[in-house]
Amino acid sequence: AIADASLLIDARELARQLSVGQTTIKKLIRSGKLPLKRFRLCRKRLFSRVELTEWIAAGMPPASRWSMVRELNSATNRRRSTT
Prior knowledge:
This protein has 4 helices and 3 strands. It has a 3-stranded antiparallel sheet.
């Protein structure tokens, strides 16, 4: 279930989704401009498709802002689910 392709994508698919090369993905991660959480499964690095979509919808903020945006979204979603 963890490796479900509909939930997690690898770096190649991430690069395709963002229309950049895999080398660019590595540079963006190192520079903090691609703040998506990474999951390790065997030798693969995987990314959440949902988080990618949310990050793009938020305007692709850098890591310093993305953590705040993600927290706000989580708090909003928790409030909605309890009402």
